[in-house]
Amino acid sequence: MTDVVRLQKEVRRSEEIIELLKPPTILLNHEIAILPVSGYVGRDSFDLLCEKSSQWLYDKEVETLLFDFTGTQKGYDGFIQAIHAFCQQLQLLGIQVIVTGLNAKLVQEWSADDFWQKDIKFYATVHQALHDLKIEIK
């Protein structure tokens, strides 16, 4: 294999890794974004998601984040505390956090946790949150 071919493969692999590391954040407008979390959430993947998302949200000057757990089945032990820590980090960056789509199990864990923040708004669906924010959905 020539050096050029090897380097091309390395570049392609690096581009794939970069793509995987991008947060799945959806920018609705210049001030509101949605961060969907789905499936089983592992500690490493959630930590990486938080790290990449916080920088992305800060760079885009997002004012409000809808943190959506509609597709989340369950998380690791300490998942709720990690969500709290991430929400607090975002609030320190000046980003209002709205949590949507918690399932019954996550709600039980959330409400049993002593550290949860009462200044976070909760909605059953993203649609409800957007309606309250006066964002028109087409």
From TrEMBL:
InterPro entries from the UniProt entry: STAS_dom_sf (IPR036513)
Superkingdom of origin: Bacteria
Protein name in the entry: STAS domain-containing protein
Organism: Listeria fleischmannii subsp. fleischmannii
